[in-house]
Amino acid sequence: MKPLKLIVGTLVIGISLAGAATAQKKPTKKPAPKKPAPATKVLPPLDVRAAREKVDIQLSNVNDFVTKLGPVAQGLETAEADRQAGKLSAKTAASVEASKMKLIEAIRGMRKGLSDLESEFRTKTALQKYLPNIQGITELVERSEDYAIASKFVAAKDPLRDIAAKLTDTLAVLPK
C-alpha cells in the first residue's frame, strides 16, 4: 500500500504542477506591425519639373509687374485724359505717349512668355493633364493689352491678377 500511496501522491503532485505550469505561461507577444519600407521619393518627369520652374518664374514676373503697374496706372490714366483734353504741352504729351507705348510693349513681352508657357502645356504629353489649370492665360494677357491700348491702365491689372491666380493654381497641382 505504501508504494500505491507513493505512486498516487506522485501523480497528484505531477498533475497539480502541470496545471500550475500551464496557468503561468506567458502570453505570446503579438508581432509588432511592420513599418512600411521607407518610400523612395519618386521624381516627376523632367518636363513636369521644368514646367513647374517656368510657371514659378512667370508667376513672379506677373506679380512684380502688377505691383509696379499699380502706382503708374492711375498717373498714366490721368495724364492720358489731360493729353486728350489738350491740357498738356506737346513735350509732355509726347512723354505720356512714350510711357504708354513702353507699358504696352512690356505687356506684349509678358504675353510672349505666357503664351509660350501655355503652348508648352498644350503640346507636351506629360503636361496635358495640368492644362485646365493654366488654360486661358494667353487670352487674359491679350485682354490686359487691349485695356492698356484703350488707356484703361487700372483695368489692365485685373486680367493680370487672374493670370497670377491661374499660375498659383497650376503650381499647387504640379508635383514637386
Short description, anyone?
With 176 residues, the protein is mostly helical. Helix content is 76%, strand content 0%.
Would you kindly provide a written description of the structure presented here, covering whatever features stand out?
There is one protein chain. The protein has a domain at 67-173. It starts with a helix and ends with a helix. The protein is an all-alpha fold and 176 residues long. It is built from 6 helices and no strands.
Spatial shape: elongated
Number of helical runs?
6
Q: What oligomeric arrangement do these chains adopt?
A: single chain
Number of strand segments: 0
Q: What proportion strand?
A: under 5%
